[in-house]
Amino acid sequence: MKTKPILGILMSLCFVFFSFTNAVNPEAEIKKDKEKSEAKKETPKKVPIYSKEEILSRLEDQNCPVTVKWNADIKRSIKDYTVKGRRSAEVILGRSTIYFPIFHEKLEKHGLPEDLKYMSVIESLLDPKAISPVGAAGLWQFMPATARRYGLKIDNFVDERYDPHKSTEAAMLYLKALHKRFNDWTLTVAAYNCGEGCVEKAIKKGDSRDFWKLRKFLPKETQKYISRFIAAAYVMDNYIFHDLHPAYPDYNLQLTKAVKVYKRKSFEQIAKETGYSLNIIKKLNPSYKRGIIPPTAEGSYLILPKIS
User: Fold this and answer.
1) Which listed CATH number (2.70.98, 1.10.260, 3.40.710, 3.10.350) goes with 253-305?
2) Long-range contacts for 131-137 (Cβ within 8 Å, ≥24 apart)?
3) Measured CA distances, 55 to 51, 130, 212, 239 (Å)
4) What's the mean pLDDT when you consider all of the chain?
5) For a designed S-S bond to 287, which of 55, 163, 238, 279 qualifies (C-beta 3.0 to 4.6 A apart)?
6) Can you point out the beta strands (E) in the chain?
7) What are phi and psi of 259, to 5 degrees?
């Protein structure tokens, strides 16, 4: 006689469990879908494919700052974004809504070509917490010595390589210095990857200042770097033609404001005072190592959502 009520309770519990286990982070789901797709070796259906001529025509209209020379690396990189790694490309496109406004402001301030913003796509996939195996960190992948040279603080409490605003300012200063030295944007972008000395040696060995002529004298990674930059610039500017749809992040991450803090503040305190979640505060302020803003006379920047 008690079978039906017991079954009803069990079914309700199963429904609650099912609902809970499916309430996951969208970005985690994107990663999971990509892994499943790769495991099954699935190819997305009806992906628009364009000819070399069509792609080069779009790049020409885009006015890319580096010298474009079509090769297999560019073709392969574009395919990686538009066919094999579509979901990853859509996550990057979504992240651009957070970081590109910062890049635009700094590029305009320093009078630099707008398309240089796409360097951060290949440097970090627009992830401010990205770190390489050799210790380069942040959106612009600064090594500690170079970061300090361009005014970024690294200590027990703060690593400003992870600060989107300050690291972008430092990257602009570095790019300006490199361009002053080489007077060529293709060599400047290459030098950002492998260092000024490396490019200088390649110029001497190749007896040329044409990147495509001295390319073979550069490290393998740098040989491909310019091609990857061209591919990233193309895809980020022409994603609509490839039926890519940005995976937009939380709205609170997209529209932000900066507040100066002079006294010591923990993220927990800030969360209580502002009403924003601890997770949002952590994501917007990745440069503070311990979730604490240390006291300073000049003040430290706290980034918060604009919408209250």
Assistant:
1) 3.10.350
2) 137/161, 137/162
3) 6, 30, 19, 12
4) 88
5) 163
6) 256-261, 265-266, 292-293, 300-305
7) -125, 135
183-201 tens-digit pLDDT:
999 999 999 999 999 999 9
Q: What is the pLDDT of residues 28-41, one digit of tens each?
A: 444 555 555 555 45
Q: Cα–Cα distance between 159 and 230 in angstroms, integer?
A: 30
The token duo for 122 is 């290949």
In three-state secondary structure terms, 112 is: coil
Q: Which amino acid is at 217?
A: F
Radius of gyration from C-alpha coordinates of the chain: 23
Closest CA to 295 of 254, 246, 262, 247: 262
* Greatest pairwise CA separation for the chain in angstroms: 93
- Whether 162 and 303 have beta carbons less than 8 Å apart is answered as no
Q: List the domain boundaries for the chain.
A: 52-242, 253-305
Please, which residues have CB within 8 angstroms of residue 286's CB and are 6 or more apart in sequence?
128, 129, 162, 163, 164
Cα 260 from Cα 302, distance rounded (Å): 6
Catalytic residues: 123
Structure tokens, 28: 């985690």
Which pLDDT score is estimated for 3? 45
Quote the CA–CA distance of 80 and 132 in Å, as a whole number. Answer: 20
DSSP assignment string, 53-88: HHHHHHHHHHT-SSPP---HHHHHHHHIIIIITHHH
How far from chain centre, in Å, is Cα 127?
4
Instruction: Write down the pTM of the prediction.
Output: 0.82
Contact 303, 274 (CB under 8 A): no
Q: Please compute the mean of the pLDDT values over residues 207-213 and round it to a whole number.
A: 97
